[in-house]
Every structure is written in structure tokens, then in C-alpha cells.
Amino acid sequence: MSNILVIGASGQIGKQATEKLLDAGHTVTAMVRNKDKISDVSGDNLSIYEGDLEKDFSTAFDGCDTVVFCAGSGAGTGPDKTLLIDLWAARNAVEFAKKASVKQFIMVSSVGSDDPDAVDSPIKPYLVAKHMADKHLQNSGVAYTILRPGSLTDEAGTEYVQEVLPGDEDKREIPREDVATAIVYSVDNEKALNRIYGLFKGDQPLKSVIQ
Ligand SMILES: NC(=O)c1ccc[n+]([C@@H]2O[C@H](COP(=O)([O-])OP(=O)(O)OC[C@H]3O[C@@H](n4cnc5c(N)ncnc54)[C@H](OP(=O)(O)O)[C@@H]3O)[C@@H](O)[C@H]2O)c1
User: Fold this and answer.
1) Ligand 1 cavity residues, CB under 6 Å
2) pLDDT tens digit string along 46-87?
3) Of 34, 82, 153, 163, which residue is most buried, by most CB within 10 angstroms?
């Protein structure tokens, strides 16, 4: 079992991942800006770290051996937060993880972050931020698992996915719950180390894709 720091634990993926990781028997430190936002999650193996990703959050990593980064600036904020959260906070998290000698860093990235130039869309700055954060992690020497989901939905997870980008743009989506489950399957999993997974709705069992 691992001691896992979940960054962005009050978020939609983050909260589901926290619950599923606790259910799987792991110990979780949930990093949140406001602990009230995670008051509906409980467990003997849960501790809360209140912190802001725009400030020093290095002490969140004390005692953790695995990091999950599922924070994000969100669609409602401007380019300043894209830079400060999706890129710089992710970069800082990788640096803190390296100093803490964590054994695995799981990054929730995004479809399109492999090649932002291929995307002609207003979200290109966000994809550039995600791309640079992913590259920083890949070059850090920390063992990584990068998840690149398609558009996130609030449907119940099915645990059936495909890794390859669907040709049909309407099919480039995935329930947040399946991303949370993919995080759980990635933890402590040799096969998932230094791997990048696309995650889209599909017909392959999620567990067999990741494990
Ligand atoms: N939306 C999509 O279709 C899509 C597609 C692919 C990938 N993604 C990526 O998926 C990830 C998670 O998505 P989601 O829907 O779960 O996001 P979400 O619900 O918006 O959660 C974002 C989390 O980041 C936290 N956060 C933001 N700024 C922070 C700060 N300064 N300090 C501490 N925490 C901060 C939020 O905290 P608060 O609760 O305090 O706000 C929240 O916990 C993100 O990395 C996103 O980029 C999204």
C-alpha cells in the first residue's frame, strides 16, 4: 500500500480518486485549498493538507511516496491561471516530488497535449501548459504515469476504454470516474511506470489496459 498525495483532491476527478484510493487500502493526503470542500470524504487513512498551489506547498510531500496531480485552473479562469496552475504548479509539484524521492508521479494531463500545434483551438495555450508540464515530468527522473483523457463527462464510469484517439471527434470523451479508476490501477503498478495513456470511451477493459 502507498502513501499518496492527491493534489486537487476537492476537484471532480480528485475527489473520486481520493475515495477510490482509500477504498483500495491506500493512505491518502488530500491537498485542498479549503477543507470544507472535502468534508464529505472520510476515512481512517485520510489526512487533509490545506494549501494553495500558487504558494509554497512543499511540505505536502512529507511522508508521501506517490503523487497524483489532478488539479487544474478550470475553463472559467484566464491565461494567468493556466500558466500558474497547469504549468508552473505542476512543474513545482514535480520538483517537490523529486526532492521527496517519491516512487511514482501520476499526472492527469489532456488529449492534445502531445502536440499542441496540431490543434487549432482557443484551448491551445492550455495544451501548451499541459505539454510543458508533462515534458518536465518526463525529464525529471521521477517515475511517471501520464494520463491523457479526452473531454471529461460526469457519466458513471464503465471501465471500458480505448487508448487510441478516436477518429470521430464526438467520441473523444471519457467519464471522470473512469479517469479516477485509471489512477487507482496505475498506483504501484510496474507496467504503468514511464507510460503515457490516452483515455477515451472504448471497448477494452480499463484494468487490462493499465495493468
Ligand atoms: N475538462 C476536460 O474536459 C478535461 C479534459 C482533459 C483533461 N482535463 C484535466 O483534468 C484535470 C481534472 O479535471 P476536473 O474536472 O476534476 O477539474 P476540477 O473539478 O476543476 O478540479 C480542479 C482542482 O484543482 C484545484 N485547484 C485549482 N487551483 C488551485 C490552487 N491554486 N491551489 C490548490 N488547488 C487548486 C481545485 O481546487 P478548488 O476546489 O479549491 O477550486 C480543484 O480541486 C485537470 O488537470 C484538467 O486540466 C480536463
Assistant:
1) 8, 10-14, 33-34, 37, 52-54, 70-72, 74, 85, 108, 110, 149, 151-152, 176
2) 999 999 999 999 999 999 999 999 999 998 998 999 999 999
3) 82
